[in-house]
Amino acid sequence: MPFPYKTVLVVGATSGIGLALTERMLSEGVTKIIALGRRQDKLDDLQKKHGDSKVSTVKFDITNLEGIPKMIEGVLKPHPSLDCAFLNSGIQRSVDFTEPSSIDLDVISTEFTTNYLSYVHLIKALLPHLQNRVKGGENAGLIFTTSGLALVPIVRCGNYCASKAAMHQLILVMREQLRDVGQSESGNTAEEKTSGENKKSKGVQVIEIYPPAVQTELHDEKHQPDIKDGRNMGMRLDEFTEEAWRGLERGDEDIPVGTTWKGFGYEEVEMRRKKLFGEMMEKMKGN
């Protein structure tokens, strides 16, 4: 089925996965992108390429948590038709606990704020608008980029892995809370996809994309000097974008991409954990 959303806020739209999926959305019929990022020159380039009728821009640093409500208010006022937010921005830094003196707590805090706390603030600011759309019989969705490292960590960037794992758990719980209050029916999970079931979302659809390592500036040496030639590490960005987009078009609520399906244990571990999560919820309903 076609991608159901037409006016999309993209947080982290100026590079990497965010930019690639922004370009894909525009080519596939999304009528308006509100591109949010920190780099004005990159925002200007995107708007110049597609025109201001297709792309609006917002220069904003999402670590400014106190400024998020006012920023979202400023987005929604000229764009009341906004039906989806794609929360994608993130940073990754290495941390070595064998050398405590090397640990910069400001870097730790910034990484966790960027990858997790800012999302919580954005969700809180966006949900009233999206839920009102659902009550009016219209589509609404939240799309998140987490990571295969949310499922299985690696040693060199433990704080990044922890932030993505926290976001993953929050997404699971939020999806079920929305469903319990009658706001959401889940789209296809990866398990449902393989079994041929086809559930339709009736509420705020909550979608999680799990990338493996992808060739983006996330791994640049200027940010992570312990990685050499990091821009060329991982899955090609165009291949990632194609596979992720197919999942979005299917309406999947979980989209493990590339090696995340097997290499990071989605098939073996996450599908089992989801089953246990469902069983726990059923038990708690009886209490």
TrEMBL record:
The keyword NADP applies. PANTHER family: 5-KETO-D-GLUCONATE 5-REDUCTASE, SHORT-CHAIN DEHYDROGENASE_OXIDOREDUCTASE. Gene3D superfamilies: NAD(P)-binding Rossmann-like Domain (3.40.50.720). The keyword Oxidoreductase applies. It comes from Botrytis galanthina. Belongs to the short-chain dehydrogenases/reductases (SDR) family. Pfam families: adh_short (PF00106). InterPro entries: NAD(P)-bd_dom_sf, Sc_DH/Rdtase_CS, SDR_fam. One of its GO terms (molecular function) is oxidoreductase activity. PROSITE patterns: ADH_SHORT. Residues 190-200 have a biased composition (Basic and acidic residues). Keywords: NADP, Oxidoreductase. This is NAD(P)-binding protein. Residues 182-201 are annotated as: Disordered.
